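Our consortium's second objective concerns turning raw sequence data into structural hypotheses that experimental partners can test. To show how far this objective has progressed, the report includes one record in full. It was chosen at random from the queue rather than selected for favorable results. The single chain below, 171 residues long, was entered without modification.
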Amino acid sequence: ARLHSKGIVYCDISPNNVFFAKGNNFSNVWLIDCDNLKFSNELKKGIYTPGYGAPEIVNQISDNTIFSDCYSFAVLAFRVLTAKNPFEISYNESSSSGGWDASTKSKKDAYLESIGDWIVESDPAIKDKYLKHLMSKDLFELFDATFNSKGRMNPNTRPSMLKWYEELKRS
């Protein structure tokens, strides 16, 4: 949220680029690999870690933006909280590399073909059976706004990092 407030895009939010301190003080979090930072008005080739890239980055439709950062953060947060990928069809199946972002096509039609449903769209019962025990209703709504078809297709509708910060601080 602080980087975005200064007009800076991180470009590669993933578990490989986030460090945190062990212990009771969880406020010590560091972003590493800062050579990918850019100002939001600069054009920079789509940078992402497989499995964490926003659909528009994976499919080479746009450069990295604050909206793609928010998407990558949401994937990371979801995986930390649930130990699952937000686009797996079933919690009983193991993760595979053939998810929605496995496509290497770069045209807009490929983008539309490559995005799958997020797990709640595939199986709405997952929310009540599983997710409600792991997160607040408000936190779930942030994930839903990011991963539902509107959030995947329209990056500017995704919740901001400030909204994520406020809700995670409250939770």
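The partners drew two points from this record. Residues 100 and 170 are 31 Å apart (CA to CA). The longest strand covers residues 18-20. Both points have been shared with the crystallography group to help prioritize constructs.
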